[in-house]
Amino acid sequence: MAFWFHRNPLKATAPVNFDLKMLAMDSQALKLCSDLRQARNHLLDLLTDPGNDVGTVEASLNAYLSLFVGLLLAPDEKGGESKLRNSLRFRWTQSMLGNSPLINMDEAKDVHKCLRKAAGFFQAMKDKYVGQLREQPVPGSDLDSRVVSAYTNQCTAEAQEVTIGRAIEMKHAPGLISALAHETSKMYTSAADSLAGLEPSKFGRWRKFLILKAVFYLSYAYCYAGENLLAQEKCGEAIRALQESHKCYQDAVQICKQYAGMKGPGTTARLDQHLFFRKLAPLVKRTLDKCERENGFIFHQKVPKDAPELELRATYGLVSPEDFQLPPHDKAWTPVVYAAFYVPPPAGPDPGNSKAAIKAEGDLPAVQEKSVSHSAADPKTSSGCVLQ
Predict the structure, then answer these.
(1) Contact call for residues 288 and 239 (beta carbons, < 8 A)
(2) pTM (2 decimals)?
(3) For a Cys staple, 340 with which of 26, 49, 189, 349, CB 3.0–4.6 Å?
(4) Which of 289, 312, 335 represents a domain boundary (last residue)?
(5) Are 210 and 195 in contact (CB under 8 A)?
(6) Which of 284, 366, 380 is nearest to 1 (CA)?
């Protein structure tokens, strides 16, 4: 099965040895440096394989962050900013500048929670941590506020897609499904708008995907709005809503073709090959035919010129980013260990951060991600949804 999501490539990073200077050799401080190095390497290795268990990855992340937090916040009684905050240089590439046939409820909850956590990570980076950097982020880099906003909105919207799939499977009220789809469309629109001012040659393909998702879910919103209006015996408005749904669907088909022909980083999502996408057109046609038939026999209502307004907010089911907090210091960060590290006073620019030093290191190799196998069969769900 083809990808439903467009995902940018993983960031490559240079090795970090955590060789921190010390006032005197301290065995516990040396062990902490070694633990930091091993924890980082283990986490990076886990991230290359999307088949790894969520709990395993999250435990590895928290283990690393509990060690890493001592480089940010002092673990002694004084607290505040760690003296080691600027002692190491981390080098990363920039993402842009440079499946199951059945929906299992537990798996759906895991995906939903992970996407909300991912959105929370990005939101925290933007709100709390990017402003603490010594240098301003390069425009278009992964820490550019516009890029972070796009990631935040995309992760939140993708979590809400899980909610929509669940609502369709459980046959919830069409008004609720319409409102959820409308909110999801708005999230994707916000994500696309965040990238509007960035270089099209680098961000155009990603932005086109976000626009595609926004238009597709707008079609879903109008489709279920039409069904909801029919239930309220507003047949004329229902017909107009379904006509708008058909128009949005045709627009989405054309954008699919445009997206498929664009070049750029990341996986290629093939939405038009997915059952969830393909099922929408016949659903719109069946509902529209029913509305026109009922209007001809019973209601005889005039079809409005303008499409009806969609509900602005769902009554429940909306997704928001899950707040991210750094874990407490690992128990290895004792005041004695912290005192053993030595940070010399600044004496001009760090030669290790010079352009010459970075050039000598060379380009970072791309991350070798492990492939994910997908079934070619359509999912066995009434909605056509599948977890990837």
Answers:
(1) yes
(2) 0.82
(3) 26
(4) 312
(5) yes
(6) 380
Quote the tokens at residue 44. 């990076």
Same domain, 135 and 184: yes
Do 50 and 89 sit in the same domain of this protein? Answer: yes
Note down the domain range covering 23: 10-93
Residues 154 and 85 in one domain: no
The single-letter code of the amino acid at 381 is T
Residues comprising the chain, all counted: 388
Nearest-angstrom CA–CA distance, 150 and 209: 12
Residues 6+ apart with CB under 8 A from 24: 340
- For the stretch 249-267, pLDDT in tens is 999 999 999 998 998 877 7
Q: What is the C-alpha to C-alpha distance for residues 58 and 175, in angstroms, rounded to an integer?
A: 36
* 286: in domain: yes
Whether the CB-CB separation of 201 and 265 falls below 8 Å is answered with: no
Domains of the chain: total: 2
Phi, psi dihedrals of residue 92, rounded to the nearest 5°: -130, 155
d(C-alpha 155, C-alpha 148), whole Å: 11
Residue 179 contacts residue 191 (beta carbons within 8 Å): no
Q: CA-to-CA distance for 335 and 77, rounded, in angstroms?
A: 8
Instruction: Tokens for 194, please give them.
Output: 């965040």
Q: How far apart are CA 331 and CA 329, in angstroms?
A: 6
| DSSP class of 261 | T
Amino acid code (one letter) for 338: Y
pLDDT tens-digit readout, 183-215: 999 999 999 999 999 999 999 999 999 999 999
